[in-house]
Structure formats: structure tokens, C-alpha cells
Specification:
2 domains, Glutaredoxin, binds glutathione, five-stranded mixed beta sheet, alpha/beta, single chain, 5 strands, 10 helices, Glutathione S-transferase Yfyf (Class Pi), Chain A, domain 2
């Protein structure tokens, strides 16, 4: 069977993993999850007890959660090294370092902004505090990422890798929460610009929006969430 990536909408970080699967070029399927609805249903705990996306059903029917673990699974099958590097090379170390930074502090810095947006009862004082805390953290994490980058066209070299996939799923949250103009960080902005024009990212963004774009040919269709839970979810 083809692996199935369970991705969340709207604006999920998993969009970047859809792009990575396009870059990988091996057959895969997708399962679409409304993060504001069905992901919160108790039945979704059979896929991920923490009620988060992304998740991956592997080609032998196991469920893997956590972006870093899914990226590891993809890299291990990337025999042609389209989205990763030989694990025993400095390039691989750098790619994983960047990916880990993006998946931890960089992504986490947005948490107060999401919390402000999702307050169940209006609380202007708390909302303002969360927004100020979130903006400060996001700006600081962008400053640090900018300082980590060299002059390569993509994060870890001259082609997009899994690290770029992780970046592009999350970087757009800067605009979503109107934190600061992306141009404030020229190196990040240049990489984002290249990625946003990349056919795999254009495809992944369109899929996330509910469209049915033509991709590279590797995408073999959606599987309904109920089927994925019934077949591969924990009992
Ligand atoms: N550590 C997890 C975090 C995943 C995560 O936070 N996913 C977000 C979407 S990007 C989510 O599902 N949040 C829960 C929610 O929106 O209720 C990973 O890296 O995969």
C-alpha cells in the first residue's frame, strides 16, 4: 500500500510535508482533517492521542506521529536523495539541526498567538498579553533563524529538503498573525519566496485549500478519515 499522510487544515504545518512527499516523488495518499472539528473528536485519539496533525500511516500500516519522526521515515526511504542527504554527511547534520530548530522553538513561538485566536470566552486582557508575548517570541526566533542561515538558495543547500518543507508549513503563520513584514528577515524571505513559487508547495497549498490540482503524479488520492481510523487506528 502507499503511505498516507494525515494533514490538518486550515494552515497546518503538515502542508510542508505534503510538499516534501511531492519532492520525494514516490506514490502516496493523503487524508484530510479539519483541525477545528473532526481532529477534536474522541475517535481521532485512535490516530494521535494528543489530537494533533500531522500523522503518517506507513506502507506497512503503522501510524507514526510527530513531524520529526515522519521526516525521519521519509528520509530513510529517500534512496535517490531528493529531499535529504546521506545520513553520515555534514549536510545531513545541518538539515536535521535546522529542522529540529524549526519544529521546536520556531514553531512553538507561535503558540501564544494561536491561543489568543482560540480563546473560548472573550478576555481582552489575556488576549493582548498572549499576542504581545507571541509577537516577541516569533520575532526573536526569526532573528535567530536569520543568523543561522548562509547564502544558499534553500535552507541546507541548493535544493529544497525536508527542512524547507518544515519551514514552509509554518513560516506563513508570520503573515497569518500579522506579526511583522517577512522582508524584515531577507535570507528567510528569499528562501520563502523560492519555496512559495515551487510547484510542490503550490500543489500542497492548493490541496490544503480543498482544490484538486495536478501534482507530480505521485499523489494517488485522498482516503476519508473515518476509513483511516477504522483500518489503522488503535483499537
Ligand atoms: N510536536 C508535534 C506538533 C504538531 C502540532 O502542534 N500540530 C498542530 C497543527 S500545525 C495541531 O495539531 N494543533 C492542535 C490544534 O490545532 O488543536 C509535531 O511536530 O508533529
Amino acid at each position: 500500500m502507499e503511505p498516507i499522510l494525515i494533514y490538518g487544515f486550515p494552515a497546518g504545518s503538515s502542508m510542508g510535508l505534503v510538499a516534501a512527499l511531492e519532492w520525494l516523488g514516490k506514490p502516496y495518499r493523503l487524508c484530510r482533517v479539519d483541525m477545528l472539528g473532526e481532529m477534536r473528536d474522541p475517535s481521532y485519539a485512535r490516530i494521535n492521542a494528543r489530537h494533533e496533525t500531522p500523522a503518517l500511516v506507513t506502507d506497512d500500516g503503522r501510524v507514526i506521529t510527530e513531524t520529526m519522526a515522519i521526516a525521519h521515515w521519509i528520509a530513510a526511504r529517500d534512496t535517490e536523495r531528493r529531499v535529504s542527504f546521506d545520513p553520515a554527511t555534514p549536510e545531513a547534520d545541518r538539515m536535521v539541526q535546522l529542522m529540529a530548530y524549526l519544529n521546536t522553538g520556531f514553531t512553538g513561538a507561535f503558540s501564544p498567538l494561536w491561543a489568543a485566536l482560540e480563546l473560548e470566552t472573550p478576555d481582552p486582557v489575556l488576549e493582548d498579553s498572549l499576542r504581545r508575548w507571541g509577537r516577541k517570541g516569533v520575532i526573536e526566533r526569526h532573528d535567530k533563524l536569520e543568523a543561522m542561515l548562509g547564502d544558499t538558495p534553500y535552507l541546507a543547500g541548493d535544493r529544497p529538503t525536508l527542512a524547507d518543507g518544515v519551514l514552509i508549513g509554518v513560516a506563513r503563520w508570520l503573515d497569518y498573525h500579522a506579526v511583522a513584514p517577512a522582508s524584515r528577515w531577507p535570507r528567510i524571505a528569499a528562501i520563502r519566496g523560492r519555496l512559495e513559487a515551487d510547484p510542490a508547495v503550490v500543489f500542497a497549498t492548493a490541496v490544503e485549500s480543498g482544490e484538486t490540482p495536478a501534482g507530480s503524479g505521485a499523489f494517488k488520492g485522498h482516503v476519508p478519515l473515518a476509513d483511516v481510523i477504522a483500518r489503522y487506528g488503535k483499537a
